[in-house]
Amino acid sequence: xxxxxxxxxxxxxxxxxxxxxxxxxxxxxxxxxxxxxxxxxxxxxxxxxxxxxxxxxxxxxxxxxxxxxxxxxxxxxxxxxxxxxxxxxxxxxxxxxxxxxxxxxxxxxxxxxxxxxxxxxxxxxxxxxxxxxxxxxxxxxxxxxxxxxxxxxxxxxxxxxxxxxxxxxxxxxxxxxxxxxxxxxxxxxxxxxxxxxxxxxxxxxxxxxxxxxxxxxxxxxxxxxxxxxxxxxxxxxxxxxxxxxxxxxxxxxxxxxxxxxxxxxxxxxxxxxxxxxxxxxxxxxxxxxxxxxxxxxxxxxxxxxxxxxxxxxxxxxxxxxxxxxxxxxxxxxxxxxxxxxxxxxxxxxxxxxxxxxxxxxxxxxxxxxxxxxxxxxxxxxxxxxxxxxxxxxxxxxxxxxxxxxxxxxxxxxxxxxxxxxxxxxxxxxxxxxxxxxxxxxxxxxxxxxxxxxxxxxxxxxxxxx
Length: 465
Prior knowledge:
With 465 residues, the protein is α/β, with parallel strands linked by helices.
């Protein structure tokens, strides 16, 4: 663990920080323009023809997982609640829409006091999803639901991609802590979102201080190669770091010669040195040599952290190496080759001119959708998941549907009539999602954790009532 923090301490850091309860991660700026223009032009047209007030149900799902992946991990729902809290338009925003001629004066008036008053339900953060899983369902008027489309998709697609990659990496690490170090490899705001999603997917902490502050995450980090190069000698750099951060710090050993650096590190800090980090070379071989050298020098409790463009395959290859923790960057924040989950936001039910709710669906080739609102369950055999069950129908049909014994209901309420569930926001919600992810992964067949390409680990059965 970076800074000499051990695995147990990392878990404590995840669940024991001061940022508690409701989110401190609410947006510092309005989110109502974080959208595509056609959301507002559709609203404008619908307000003019009278359909904007029609009750609607929109569904978020993906038609397929990234090639070869066995499952996905849902993440970002708490951030959606944060974003909706900030979804309002100030005078400057309204003036922009008006000056650009994007919407009419009547729509400007409608938007002046806009707030989302609908309901949202979906999969828990940290839950596994598969093709056609109803990950999120948004219900309200067409006008208010359509404005959320781009924002909801941008959050869910990215956060779920990072959480899915983090899950594969955490599994490949085989119980050794993984830490997010990807902030410098992506957009500065995406870096904050990635830190949060990584913890949902199994990581233990982050190097990103804003994410640590907003979400109460474990913060990690000590020194880079430039700190060693700044000093007249490696010994001076190590002595300075130990003097500033204490014996439990982690010293970076590959600026010059690793063997000499380890010897110097123990001479400076003594056998109680917290940790050393290796950031280049053949990590497995070097970790083995460093471990033997540390033990020979009496530093038997000094931990070894490795970094350097790791992904799940590299982590799997290091399972037999004496490594204590990992720092992961580029491949984490880019979804390890799958930077999006290809989720879509589709209308599945709407109110007709007679006031009756009507299931609707696309019939486009390769893009057909399943009509109606959804229920979602997972069935088990011998304690292992065997099938995802998606039930589609009218509100009345679904309320009368009786799942089979032992099926787990996968949907939770995020918002009801415009009121969000504060328990699903903030640090405590992230910690709960982290724990739920571990439990849900353990309930999947063991092949879910295979890094070999394959089909989704369980099938999805769709029943239209």
